[in-house]
Amino acid sequence: MNDNPNTGSSFDDFLKEEGLYEECTAVAIKRVLARQLTEEMKRQNLTKTEMAKQMQTSRAQLDRLLDPKKTGVSIETISRAASVVGRQLRIELV
Prior knowledge:
Blueprint: H1 11-17, H2 21-43, H3 48-55, H4 59-66, H5 75-84
């Protein structure tokens, strides 16, 4: 017999109990987004300077967008970046 009250609970449940779920989810989403944008920029031989210019933003703002740990980026900025690399941003609630 197992006396552990956490047996069978999911990692998501653990994160929620610890108050870390939203933060971890945001970081995970940002990592995927940053990786996708970086890979698309490489594929298109697009430098950060040129990318920022086409987005009509600063190189510092682009660096924040591509930093997987910085989750405070506007949807507008993400959408502009997606447009520059020929992609669309899709957001949905599940």
